Amino acid sequence: MIVGFVSKTPAGTYRANWRDSADRQKAKTFRTKKEANAFLAEVEGALNRGTYVDPHAGRMRFGEFVTRWLAGRSVEARTAERTQSMLRAHLLPQWADWPLAKIDYLAVQEWVTNLGRTLAPSTTAKHLGMLSMIMQTAIRARLIAVNPCEGVRVPRNRAREARAGTISREAFFGRLLPAVPAEHRAIVCAAAGAGLRWGECAGLPWEAVDLDRGLLHVAQVAVETHGGVLLRAYPKTRAGVRTVPMPPFLVDELRRRCGAAVPDARALVFADRDGGPQRRSNFRRRVWLPSLVRAGLLGRVAEVAPGRWAASWPDRDGREQRAEFADEAAAVAHVAASAFGGLRFHDLRHSYITWLVTDGVPVNVVRRVVGHEKASTTLNRYTHTPDDYADRVRLTFADDSLTFRPAPRLTDPGNTALPGPEAHSGKGRPPSGGDGGRREVRLRGGRAEPTQRSRGVQPPRVCCRTAYERLS
After folding, report:
1. Quick count: other Cβ atoms within 10 Å of Cβ 102?
2. pLDDT in tens, 268-301
3. Which 8-state DSSP code applies to residue 306?
4. Same domain, 272 and 242
């Protein structure tokens, strides 16, 4: 089917003329007749395949299209805030005035490479993913034909990629937990003893806790927005709805928090002073970071003389900073506000998963307990090598480590050689050796070897027993 024709213009160029899928007349000018005919062939193929895109539609600017894209989305409040933040920070400053059709692969790759110089690879990948999602929507709207983000590579800068931390059980119970104020220990235990996310802790109601059976049910979560903290009746994913067994130390902490009175079933377990869900930022600043400092897990505070407290902490560049204060509280507050890094509250969830996997709990069971949809997420993102991994590997083989006990060869002085015919027939028995014992033999590959039922001499044996200490 002929969809158009080529005509020569007075200026000596060639105009491709065609009708689109809506039977509207379209035209585009080219330098040569060959280029115009090639373009018409592409248009004809696209119309036949149903993938035709008006070449003039891509003139819409990226910023204008993003406004329409946002208006048609229906997402959670927190997701909408993250989207707006990423658009304001990096996407709109770069692409707002670009026509959609002018955004090509090379331009996107250059932008991503520049982002990678200041952002972590994971953050860079999120920005690329959002741009790709917007351009894919433009394809569905028949504004562009291809996604310029396809094939773009995110630069890897492993030295800048932040690695999630963990804490050993000894350090958690011996250092961190005693440093946490008593009224906040239960929420810390919920993260380390049940693997709950912050939102799952902050949104946990008493009706979801069964202290007698040692179980808690995760469903309602708290979601932070710029306008406050909202309660949502469902968690991050479908797999997040789960029932988690509680260890005894968590049950004890919750009983102490509950007290003698029966709390309101709808009340939050870890509510703030007004009865609402806590904000993560407030908890981190007022409780979490000072607790890390007091535990010696972030910076260092020590009394050097009566009324003099020395503090040291790492800054953003890794350099150690020092100062002196008149009292411990001021020193702890300063280090908590100034130090860079340190264990995150979410790292307690990482630690919980690492403890379970290290103790031999099947990964698929761990996946269900912590609410992951895929076991690969549990293994690749949340399981970390413990600091004492070398000792654990050695301890695995500490008892009967690869014990090898070879059986005496048939030509040993204490054994008499077997008669050929009887040995090959498999019916004869060798004469007794120096110790008077009898052994059965079997022909294997032209050689007579003792069977597992041989008496007096045991076959080669490899023994391996797994053993390691568990924290009570």
Report:
1. 15
2. 999 998 899 999 999 999 999 999 999 999 999 9
3. T
4. yes
